[in-house]
Amino acid sequence: MSKLRILSVAALAFSSPYALANPILESDLASFAVLGSSTVTNVPISTIIGNIGVWSSGGANAITGFNSSPGVATSDPQVTGGQVHAGTALAESAQNQLTTAISNLNLMGTGTTLISPDLGGLTLTPGVYTVHAGTSNLTGVLTLDGLGNANAAWVFQMDSSLITSVGSAVNLINTGSDAGVFWDVRSSATLGSNTSFEGNILALSSISFGSEVSMGCGGAFASTGAVTMIMDSIEGGGCGGGITVPTHGGTPTFLPFVPVTAVPEPETYTMLIAGLSLIGFMMRRRKNGTA
Q1: Are both 238 and 169 inside the same structural domain?
Q2: Mind giving me the DSSP string for 178-230?
Q3: Quick one: 181 and 275 in the same domain?
Q4: What is the model's pTM?
Q5: How many folded domains does the chain comprise?
Q6: How far apart are CA 189 and CA 162, in angstroms?
Q7: How far is it, in rounded angstroms, from Cα 102 to Cα 204?
Q8: 112 domain residue, yes or no
Q9: What tens digit of pLDDT does each residue of 234-279 get?
Q10: SS3 238
Protein backbone atom coordinates (compact mmCIF):
# COMPACT_ATOMS: atom_id res chain seq x y z
CA MET A 1 0.00 0.00 0.00
CA SER A 2 1.04 3.64 -0.43
CA LYS A 3 2.86 5.06 2.56
CA LEU A 4 0.39 7.94 2.56
CA ARG A 5 -2.04 7.39 5.39
CA ILE A 6 -5.59 7.87 4.21
CA LEU A 7 -9.20 7.96 5.31
CA SER A 8 -12.28 7.37 3.20
CA VAL A 9 -15.72 8.84 3.62
CA ALA A 10 -17.31 5.45 4.20
CA ALA A 11 -20.87 6.68 4.63
CA LEU A 12 -21.15 7.58 0.95
CA ALA A 13 -20.09 4.09 -0.07
CA PHE A 14 -23.07 2.54 1.65
CA SER A 15 -25.75 4.98 0.63
CA SER A 16 -28.71 3.73 -1.42
CA PRO A 17 -28.74 1.65 -3.60
CA TYR A 18 -25.45 0.20 -2.33
CA ALA A 19 -26.86 -0.42 1.14
CA LEU A 20 -28.78 -3.36 -0.37
CA ALA A 21 -25.70 -5.07 -1.77
CA ASN A 22 -22.99 -7.48 -0.64
CA PRO A 23 -19.22 -7.34 -1.07
CA ILE A 24 -17.51 -9.75 -3.48
CA LEU A 25 -15.93 -11.50 -0.48
CA GLU A 26 -18.64 -12.32 2.04
CA SER A 27 -17.77 -12.27 5.73
CA ASP A 28 -16.76 -15.92 6.27
CA LEU A 29 -14.49 -15.96 3.22
CA ALA A 30 -13.05 -12.54 4.05
CA SER A 31 -11.99 -13.82 7.48
CA PHE A 32 -9.48 -16.19 5.84
CA ALA A 33 -5.97 -15.35 4.70
CA VAL A 34 -5.48 -18.82 3.23
CA LEU A 35 -8.16 -21.28 2.12
CA GLY A 36 -7.54 -24.54 0.27
CA SER A 37 -9.71 -27.39 -0.94
CA SER A 38 -7.49 -30.49 -0.99
CA THR A 39 -4.64 -29.47 1.33
CA VAL A 40 -2.75 -26.54 2.84
CA THR A 41 0.98 -27.18 3.30
CA ASN A 42 3.55 -24.92 4.90
CA VAL A 43 7.29 -24.83 5.49
CA PRO A 44 7.66 -22.83 8.74
CA ILE A 45 8.06 -20.18 9.73
CA SER A 46 5.33 -18.30 7.87
CA THR A 47 3.51 -15.25 9.19
CA ILE A 48 -0.24 -15.25 8.65
CA ILE A 49 -2.84 -12.66 9.68
CA GLY A 50 -6.34 -14.16 9.52
CA ASN A 51 -7.79 -17.66 9.42
CA ILE A 52 -6.25 -20.62 7.60
CA GLY A 53 -8.50 -23.41 6.44
CA VAL A 54 -9.22 -26.44 4.28
CA TRP A 55 -12.55 -27.75 3.18
CA SER A 56 -13.07 -30.57 0.72
CA SER A 57 -16.35 -32.32 0.02
CA GLY A 58 -14.26 -35.48 -0.39
CA GLY A 59 -13.12 -35.26 3.22
CA ALA A 60 -9.40 -34.67 2.53
CA ASN A 61 -9.13 -31.98 5.21
CA ALA A 62 -5.35 -31.96 5.52
CA ILE A 63 -3.17 -29.16 6.88
CA THR A 64 0.57 -29.58 7.42
CA GLY A 65 3.09 -27.12 8.84
CA PHE A 66 0.51 -25.64 11.22
CA ASN A 67 -1.13 -26.94 14.38
CA SER A 68 -4.45 -28.45 13.32
CA SER A 69 -7.20 -30.75 14.49
CA PRO A 70 -9.95 -32.08 12.18
CA GLY A 71 -13.20 -30.25 12.73
CA VAL A 72 -11.81 -28.01 15.49
CA ALA A 73 -10.45 -24.45 15.25
CA THR A 74 -6.86 -24.56 16.52
CA SER A 75 -4.33 -21.88 17.50
CA ASP A 76 -0.85 -21.69 15.99
CA PRO A 77 2.01 -19.29 16.80
CA GLN A 78 2.43 -18.48 13.10
CA VAL A 79 -1.18 -17.27 12.90
CA THR A 80 -2.50 -14.05 14.42
CA GLY A 81 -5.99 -12.62 14.17
CA GLY A 82 -7.37 -16.05 13.33
CA GLN A 83 -7.11 -19.81 13.78
CA VAL A 84 -6.43 -22.96 11.79
CA HIS A 85 -9.60 -24.59 10.44
CA ALA A 86 -9.25 -28.15 9.15
CA GLY A 87 -12.68 -29.16 7.95
CA THR A 88 -14.65 -26.86 10.24
CA ALA A 89 -18.08 -25.45 9.47
CA LEU A 90 -16.50 -22.01 8.96
CA ALA A 91 -14.12 -23.42 6.33
CA GLU A 92 -17.04 -25.10 4.57
CA SER A 93 -19.01 -21.86 4.51
CA ALA A 94 -15.98 -19.97 3.21
CA GLN A 95 -15.51 -22.46 0.37
CA ASN A 96 -19.16 -22.04 -0.62
CA GLN A 97 -18.70 -18.27 -0.60
CA LEU A 98 -15.55 -18.67 -2.71
CA THR A 99 -17.57 -20.47 -5.39
CA THR A 100 -20.07 -17.60 -5.37
CA ALA A 101 -17.33 -14.96 -5.48
CA ILE A 102 -15.70 -16.55 -8.54
CA SER A 103 -19.06 -16.72 -10.32
CA ASN A 104 -19.73 -13.06 -9.56
CA LEU A 105 -16.31 -11.95 -10.84
CA ASN A 106 -16.90 -13.89 -14.05
CA LEU A 107 -20.09 -11.86 -14.58
CA MET A 108 -18.03 -8.69 -14.86
CA GLY A 109 -16.89 -9.61 -18.35
CA THR A 110 -13.57 -9.22 -20.09
CA GLY A 111 -13.11 -5.46 -19.70
CA THR A 112 -9.90 -4.24 -21.33
CA THR A 113 -7.78 -6.98 -22.88
CA LEU A 114 -4.09 -6.30 -22.37
CA ILE A 115 -1.84 -7.03 -25.33
CA SER A 116 1.07 -8.41 -23.32
CA PRO A 117 0.58 -11.15 -20.71
CA ASP A 118 3.38 -9.54 -18.65
CA LEU A 119 2.08 -6.70 -16.48
CA GLY A 120 5.55 -5.60 -15.38
CA GLY A 121 6.22 -1.91 -15.98
CA LEU A 122 2.54 -0.98 -16.39
CA THR A 123 0.52 1.55 -14.41
CA LEU A 124 -3.16 0.60 -14.43
CA THR A 125 -6.12 2.65 -13.25
CA PRO A 126 -9.23 1.00 -11.73
CA GLY A 127 -11.25 -1.30 -13.98
CA VAL A 128 -11.60 -4.83 -15.36
CA TYR A 129 -8.68 -6.31 -17.30
CA THR A 130 -8.24 -9.57 -19.18
CA VAL A 131 -4.73 -11.03 -19.05
CA HIS A 132 -3.63 -13.84 -21.37
CA ALA A 133 -1.49 -16.77 -20.28
CA GLY A 134 2.27 -16.31 -20.50
CA THR A 135 5.60 -17.55 -19.25
CA SER A 136 5.28 -14.82 -16.61
CA ASN A 137 2.43 -12.44 -15.89
CA LEU A 138 4.59 -10.18 -13.78
CA THR A 139 8.27 -9.39 -14.29
CA GLY A 140 9.27 -6.25 -12.44
CA VAL A 141 6.73 -3.85 -10.92
CA LEU A 142 3.01 -3.38 -11.62
CA THR A 143 1.57 -0.11 -10.27
CA LEU A 144 -2.15 0.14 -9.49
CA ASP A 145 -3.05 3.84 -9.32
CA GLY A 146 -6.38 4.59 -7.65
CA LEU A 147 -6.39 8.21 -8.89
CA GLY A 148 -7.46 9.46 -5.48
CA ASN A 149 -10.53 7.20 -5.24
CA ALA A 150 -10.91 5.53 -1.83
CA ASN A 151 -13.22 2.95 -3.50
CA ALA A 152 -10.89 2.12 -6.38
CA ALA A 153 -11.07 -1.49 -7.58
CA TRP A 154 -9.30 -3.71 -10.08
CA VAL A 155 -10.43 -7.08 -11.45
CA PHE A 156 -7.92 -9.19 -13.36
CA GLN A 157 -9.57 -11.89 -15.47
CA MET A 158 -6.70 -14.34 -15.95
CA ASP A 159 -7.31 -16.47 -19.05
CA SER A 160 -5.45 -19.35 -17.50
CA SER A 161 -2.71 -19.12 -14.87
CA LEU A 162 -1.19 -16.36 -12.77
CA ILE A 163 2.62 -16.53 -12.64
CA THR A 164 4.97 -13.98 -11.08
CA SER A 165 8.73 -13.90 -11.55
CA VAL A 166 11.22 -13.87 -8.68
CA GLY A 167 11.41 -10.48 -6.96
CA SER A 168 8.43 -8.95 -8.78
CA ALA A 169 6.02 -6.55 -7.09
CA VAL A 170 2.55 -5.02 -7.15
CA ASN A 171 2.30 -1.48 -5.77
CA LEU A 172 -1.07 -0.03 -4.76
CA ILE A 173 -1.11 3.79 -4.61
CA ASN A 174 -3.46 6.78 -4.36
CA THR A 175 -6.39 4.91 -2.86
CA GLY A 176 -7.84 3.99 0.53
CA SER A 177 -8.54 1.07 2.80
CA ASP A 178 -11.84 0.39 0.99
CA ALA A 179 -10.07 -0.42 -2.28
CA GLY A 180 -10.37 -3.83 -3.94
CA VAL A 181 -7.97 -5.96 -5.97
CA PHE A 182 -9.18 -9.31 -7.31
CA TRP A 183 -7.23 -11.86 -9.34
CA ASP A 184 -9.76 -14.24 -10.95
CA VAL A 185 -7.52 -17.14 -11.98
CA ARG A 186 -9.02 -19.79 -14.29
CA SER A 187 -6.41 -22.42 -13.38
CA SER A 188 -3.51 -22.16 -10.89
CA ALA A 189 -1.42 -19.35 -9.41
CA THR A 190 2.34 -19.51 -8.84
CA LEU A 191 4.10 -16.65 -7.06
CA GLY A 192 7.88 -16.61 -7.40
CA SER A 193 10.18 -16.23 -4.41
CA ASN A 194 10.42 -12.75 -2.87
CA THR A 195 7.39 -11.51 -4.75
CA SER A 196 5.68 -8.54 -3.06
CA PHE A 197 2.01 -8.90 -3.93
CA GLU A 198 -1.30 -7.11 -3.37
CA GLY A 199 -4.82 -8.43 -3.78
CA ASN A 200 -7.05 -11.45 -3.40
CA ILE A 201 -6.19 -14.52 -5.48
CA LEU A 202 -9.27 -16.59 -6.31
CA ALA A 203 -7.90 -19.62 -8.14
CA LEU A 204 -10.01 -22.36 -9.68
CA SER A 205 -7.27 -24.89 -8.95
CA SER A 206 -4.16 -24.46 -6.75
CA ILE A 207 -1.92 -21.67 -5.40
CA SER A 208 1.82 -22.11 -4.85
CA PHE A 209 4.05 -19.60 -3.07
CA GLY A 210 7.81 -19.55 -3.46
CA SER A 211 9.92 -18.71 -0.43
CA GLU A 212 9.50 -15.40 1.38
CA VAL A 213 6.58 -14.12 -0.67
CA SER A 214 4.73 -11.24 0.99
CA MET A 215 1.09 -10.29 0.45
CA GLY A 216 0.38 -6.85 1.85
CA CYS A 217 -3.39 -7.29 1.68
CA GLY A 218 -5.83 -9.91 0.47
CA GLY A 219 -6.02 -13.68 0.68
CA ALA A 220 -5.08 -16.84 -1.19
CA PHE A 221 -8.18 -18.90 -2.01
CA ALA A 222 -8.02 -22.18 -3.94
CA SER A 223 -11.36 -23.56 -5.07
CA THR A 224 -10.47 -27.16 -5.95
CA GLY A 225 -6.76 -27.61 -5.22
CA ALA A 226 -4.05 -27.00 -2.63
CA VAL A 227 -2.30 -23.95 -1.21
CA THR A 228 1.46 -24.38 -0.69
CA MET A 229 3.62 -21.96 1.35
CA ILE A 230 7.33 -21.67 2.12
CA MET A 231 8.17 -19.18 4.88
CA ASP A 232 5.77 -16.58 3.50
CA SER A 233 3.94 -13.56 4.92
CA ILE A 234 0.25 -13.14 4.15
CA GLU A 235 -1.82 -10.32 5.62
CA GLY A 236 -5.39 -11.44 5.14
CA GLY A 237 -8.16 -8.87 4.93
CA GLY A 238 -8.13 -5.65 2.97
CA CYS A 239 -8.20 -5.24 -0.81
CA GLY A 240 -11.76 -6.58 -0.77
CA GLY A 241 -13.79 -3.44 -1.39
CA GLY A 242 -14.73 -1.19 -4.26
CA ILE A 243 -17.29 -3.58 -5.78
CA THR A 244 -20.68 -4.78 -4.58
CA VAL A 245 -23.08 -7.50 -5.69
CA PRO A 246 -26.86 -6.88 -5.70
CA THR A 247 -28.50 -8.78 -2.85
CA HIS A 248 -30.87 -10.59 -5.21
CA GLY A 249 -28.17 -11.39 -7.76
CA GLY A 250 -26.91 -9.75 -10.91
CA THR A 251 -23.75 -8.20 -12.27
CA PRO A 252 -21.43 -6.68 -9.65
CA THR A 253 -20.94 -2.92 -9.84
CA PHE A 254 -18.17 -0.52 -8.88
CA LEU A 255 -18.85 1.76 -5.94
CA PRO A 256 -19.00 5.51 -6.62
CA PHE A 257 -15.94 7.72 -6.40
CA VAL A 258 -15.07 8.79 -2.87
CA PRO A 259 -12.01 11.03 -2.52
CA VAL A 260 -9.25 9.99 -0.18
CA THR A 261 -8.29 12.40 2.58
CA ALA A 262 -4.73 12.60 3.78
CA VAL A 263 -4.11 12.07 7.48
CA PRO A 264 -1.16 14.07 8.86
CA GLU A 265 1.93 12.12 9.83
CA PRO A 266 2.81 12.03 13.57
CA GLU A 267 5.40 14.78 13.04
CA THR A 268 2.68 17.01 11.62
CA TYR A 269 0.49 16.40 14.67
CA THR A 270 3.39 17.42 16.91
CA MET A 271 3.90 20.67 15.01
CA LEU A 272 0.15 21.37 15.05
CA ILE A 273 -0.08 20.88 18.83
CA ALA A 274 2.98 23.07 19.39
CA GLY A 275 1.50 25.79 17.23
CA LEU A 276 -1.85 25.70 19.04
CA SER A 277 -0.07 25.83 22.39
CA LEU A 278 1.88 28.91 21.29
CA ILE A 279 -1.29 30.62 20.11
CA GLY A 280 -2.96 29.86 23.45
CA PHE A 281 0.02 31.26 25.35
CA MET A 282 0.03 34.48 23.33
CA MET A 283 -3.73 34.96 23.80
CA ARG A 284 -3.42 34.52 27.56
CA ARG A 285 -0.50 36.95 27.63
CA ARG A 286 -2.48 39.54 25.68
CA LYS A 287 -5.47 39.09 27.96
CA ASN A 288 -3.33 39.55 31.08
CA GLY A 289 -1.68 42.62 29.56
CA THR A 290 -5.07 44.17 28.79
CA ALA A 291 -6.25 43.54 32.34
Answers
A1: yes
A2: T-EEEEEESS-EEE-TT-EE-SEEEESS-EEEEET-EESS--EEESSS-EEEE
A3: no
A4: 0.84
A5: 2
A6: 5
A7: 8
A8: yes
A9: 999 999 999 999 998 899 999 999 999 855 445 544 554 555 555 5
A10: coil
